[in-house]
Amino acid sequence: MKNTMTVNSADQTMQLGEKLAPFLQPRDLILLDGDLGAGKTTFTKGLAKGLGISRPIKSPTFTIIREYQDGRIPLYHMDVYRLEEGGGEDLGLEEYFNGDGVNVVEWSKFVAGELPNHYLRIIFKRDDSKGDNVRTLTFEPKGERFVKMIHEMIGD
Ligand code: ADP
Ligand code: MG
């Protein structure tokens, strides 16, 4: 199965997020990994739009978590880059993962030990040899539902 996709602009990255949104249901977990500026928050903006959220999405880099309740289902947007080791417990990550909304986690490697078994991981990579706005997204679905979701979303 094809599991990578190349995009050429921030808008295209947002459109992918928007396209994913209709498939999502409460307790779904989306992990967004890749360097600073790779496009994780940009993708989340599109996803939020697809959920019908109209409040502007701000990076949760300093707040760690931001909650948006004005869409089809709640969105919990986390950036755990600044979390101390094991800090996911204090944050109540598990409650979010078992909660009533979609969970999006940027920098998931910092909470690798605290993740459930099923999630959709998307890795964002810049390729400077191809220009400033090019990103390759690699989709790593864990669990049957997410495998199917990616299949429907990006096809074979
Ligand atoms: P991250 O959350 O991964 O640190 P951001 O989404 O906050 O990254 O920032 C990505 C930056 O790169 C934004 O300024 C965005 O406009 C720019 N950009 C350029 N091309 C792309 C692209 N193809 N996808 C996503 N962002 C892009
Ligand atoms: Mg970010």
TrEMBL record:
Gene3D superfamilies reported in the protein's UniProt record: P-loop containing nucleotide triphosphate hydrolases
Domain of life where this protein originates: Bacteria
Localisation per UniProt entry: Cytoplasm
InterPro entries per the UniProt record, alphabetical: P-loop_NTPase, T6A_TsaE
Keywords recorded for this protein, A-Z: ATP-binding, Cytoplasm, Magnesium, Metal-binding, Nucleotide-binding, tRNA processing
Stored Pfam families: TsaE
SUPFAM superfamilies: P-loop containing nucleoside triphosphate hydrolases
Main location: cytoplasm
Entry keyword tRNA processing: yes
NCBIfam families: T6A_YjeE (TIGR00150)
Family affiliation: Belongs to the TsaE family.
Name this protein carries in UniProt: tRNA threonylcarbamoyladenosine biosynthesis protein TsaE
